[in-house]
Amino acid sequence: MDILKERILKEASVINNDVLKLDSLLNHGVDPKLTMEMGKEFARRFADSKATKVITVESSGIPVAFATALELGVPLVFARRKKTLLGEPDAYCERVPSFTKGIVTDLLVSRHLLSSDDTLLFIDDIIANGDAARGLIKIIEQSGAQLAGIGIVLEKSFQAGGRALRELGLHVETLVRIRSLEGNVITFED
Ligand code: 5GP
């Protein structure tokens, strides 16, 4: 998505060789028009998915997942991210490392929000190592729902997450792929 590449070049800052700061578009602020364009693009790419729900992880995945769900005309469910020492019998729960926070958190989804009749489209903001995605996939498996595909706004292709999901045979679509952040320079894949 060329418009997204342009906005990333204008607004993102490189924190180090592994981390991009993209607060104005994805992680702290939202451009509603651009977010709707992302949602339309995911809806187009997954038009044949027969998704009954869109699922994401709070909080940065929610705007683009909402836009996608609106375009597809289906509900949205977002996994809560919290650190809990209590058992949550009414929720599916998976413990995952957090890429940016350097801690582990739990992803929780209330059991009543997912059914084995669901076909889920997973939408998220950024993929790095793929831990959040793997956690959410395990929750989907626990629920008995089908996973129709995974749409990610920004893939850092020098990290293993996106590749690992494709190797599992999953349908993964990413709007922008970054090959490198080395030397403080954002280099996109073609
Ligand atoms: P993963 O679980 O794939 O390693 O990391 C995914 C999550 O970590 C994303 O949902 C995103 O919020 C956060 N994340 C990963 N890499 C970056 C990054 O370079 N910048 C920011 N701001 N967040 C990131």
Automatic annotation (TrEMBL):
Pfam families: Pribosyltran (PF00156). CDD domains: PRTases_typeI (cd06223). Residues 47-156 form the Phosphoribosyltransferase domain. InterPro entries: PRTase-like, PRTase_dom, Pur/Pyrimidine_PRTase, Xanthine_PRibTrfase. Its EC number is 2.4.2.22. GO terms for biological process: purine ribonucleoside salvage; xanthine metabolic process; XMP salvage. It comes from the Bacteria. It catalyses: XMP + diphosphate = xanthine + 5-phospho-alpha-D-ribose 1-diphosphate. Gene3D superfamilies: 3.40.50.2020. 5-phospho-alpha-D-ribose 1-diphosphate binds at A128, N129, G130, D131, A132. Xanthine binds at L20, N27, K156. Pathway: Purine metabolism; XMP biosynthesis via salvage pathway; XMP from xanthine: step 1/1. It is found in: Cytoplasm. GO terms for cellular component: cytoplasm. Keywords: Cytoplasm, Glycosyltransferase, Purine salvage, Transferase. GO terms for molecular function: xanthine phosphoribosyltransferase activity. The keyword Transferase applies. Converts the preformed base xanthine, a product of nucleic acid breakdown, to xanthosine 5'-monophosphate (XMP), so it can be reused for RNA or DNA synthesis. Belongs to the purine/pyrimidine phosphoribosyltransferase family. Xpt subfamily. HAMAP family: XPRTase. Homodimer. This is Xanthine phosphoribosyltransferase. It comes from Cohnella faecalis.
